[in-house]
Give the backbone structure.
Amino acid sequence: MAVRVPKGFLVAGVHCGLKRDLRKPDLTLIVSETPAVAVGVYTQNLVYAAPVALDRQRTPSDRIRVVVANSGNANACTGERGLRDAQEMARLAAEAVGAEEDQALVLSTGVIGHYMPMEKIAHGVKLAAAQLGSDEQALISAARGMMTTDTVYKLAGRTVSLRRREIQITGMVKGAAMMGPNLATMLGVILTDAGLDIPSAQAMLRAAVADSFNCINVDGHMSTNDTVLLLANGSAGSGLLSGADLASFGQTLNDLCAELARMIPADGEGASHLITIEVTGCKSREDALQIARTIANSPLVKTAITGADPNWGRIVSAAGYAGVLFDPAGVSLYLNGTMLYQGGTPVDFDAQAVSESIRTNRDTHIQLQLSEGSASGRFWTTDLTAEYVRLNADYHT
Amino acid sequence: MAVRVPKGFLVAGVHCGLKRDLRKPDLTLIVSETPAVAVGVYTQNLVYAAPVALDRQRTPSDRIRVVVANSGNANACTGERGLRDAQEMARLAAEAVGAEEDQALVLSTGVIGHYMPMEKIAHGVKLAAAQLGSDEQALISAARGMMTTDTVYKLAGRTVSLRRREIQITGMVKGAAMMGPNLATMLGVILTDAGLDIPSAQAMLRAAVADSFNCINVDGHMSTNDTVLLLANGSAGSGLLSGADLASFGQTLNDLCAELARMIPADGEGASHLITIEVTGCKSREDALQIARTIANSPLVKTAITGADPNWGRIVSAAGYAGVLFDPAGVSLYLNGTMLYQGGTPVDFDAQAVSESIRTNRDTHIQLQLSEGSASGRFWTTDLTAEYVRLNADYHT
């Protein structure tokens, strides 16, 4: 679980005035000393932010040198001016580290529909360029620079030995809210010093995202800014990975993304529970995920967990409107390991004990078993609390 | 807007111990003195309650005499025993009013997954049969007998003159929560003394529901019990309506259902705002409704209204993930009549004034204009408050 900056990368996170609190970094700079392969996976929202438009255009690439990320302003719904601002952010970042203009990518998160305060950005980029480093403190500052309502920074890493080289993969993400299906809303940057070609990098990132960031949500609202980038600069000296080495790298990437993904609902806005929903016995993985996602999106299921109420009726009825055909008489349900429901009817269970197990654990485990096949899927979400409402009714940075 | 019991019907609402509060009716009996045409529209949830199974089997019909409805227990997810209980409820109600067993329909709402306390039901049916009446007080008690977390009873009526007869249409509904698309979750009974044949009644009810109860939600959770029944007993002496008379009746039914539907989110659990979402300029009505529904389902849009925040970014971005293709550069948005957004970019507006207009009005009007065509759709929903969370985290009657 080694979390460190991979070879050949330098990072920094600084405060430049986008957030009010002076102690909170709001601009992150990530630099690769040599041109890196960069691939991205982006929001499916028709209304996407300017940085998404820019990154989509510039990836996949084999010559990216710098990523500039900011929190406090999403640069979304800002029209032509927003696009120019994103381009200018990229230009400033490239200039600050001696790269070419089109070697830079941009990530933004925060309030939608406000123009980017470019003077602050220009100041922040300079500040960050002067503080680039590869130690733990620099990495934490970089992760914190992307945070909005996140209460903790989110970093994870893996070290693997491939071709007799020590290869590092390190990811930083931000999440917390405005998350939904089709790329759960978030920003993520994964850095590796492995050598990857563009097609392999793109395929592996897509696969890893499908099983991780696309299986989480907080409120089902798909963001305008969702982006996950993977940068591979080859500095570990392994050469381009292929065959079994590439597969092994892919497995590690999946594992890392799952860990990072789970951190997001675990820190969901106002959440008091991380809910893992496992649906088994389905005809296909898509069916299982569709049912799990529908359960995860139900405010009635979420509030039941908030209230430590083993309300299997809400869970089973949510499955029933997922749009997947199944036999209700073949359904069983377990909550935190206790069977609540079997074959379409309730079973006797110690409601007090199950309620207690919900109340005293931050993790809640819902397992729904169908009898349609052998495919399964897993989804993570949060409960819904009065605190979530308070945070989102009063949201302004 | 005459609200009275149509000719040839008798109604009652009584307390029989399903709810704790002795002052709250929890069982409703509706009796037609002569066999009535009865048609229904039901939940699309795969997991549907026993009363839905029973009513689906018995409608359409031209010989229904009695409807028994209860709150406090939904008789859902109760398996074979639940089905037997629903049948027994029907039998008890039929017996109490001298009808045949299969001339009765059943409606239940309340907690899911508990067996129906049949002794209380038996007692309640007897009590109600002894109190049947056609005055305003009986009608209000009947409407109250279906209420769960509703804070007000929901009744509306229309009187129309057709074929030189005065025809009455009166509806009662309950709603409040666990509402979603595909029949917004609710119970509804519409009574008329008009004469209708089965095909006309069924077609008119479907059309009226599509434009009313299917265009509302509170939390997007589709219930196991959603049912709207229309009973027509012909007691007004008009004979079977046809031609222009039938069309006129249908128009009145649409209008009545829209009024009843709007009452439901207006009384949504913990709601502080009724939000009307109007989407215009679409290729089809389906597109417009899909976008309106997606906006209505976003917790971020709902909480913005709760907080009186004219956050058009959340609204426009919700439209963007509705799954309907449109040009984001052709989008304009009005909130309570003020333009916030035009052609893909924000416009200058007095945020304080718009915020004030949200804060000081219970009704909020969101109008999203696309530039794809000339179809439009309208959807009603509520905001999302800490009170909603409190109600649903602690829900037990």
DSSP finds eleven helices and 14 strands in chain A. Confidence is low (pLDDT under 50) at residues 179-184 of chain A. The first helix of chain A runs from residue 50 to 58. Chain A touches chain B through 67 residues (CB under 8 Å).
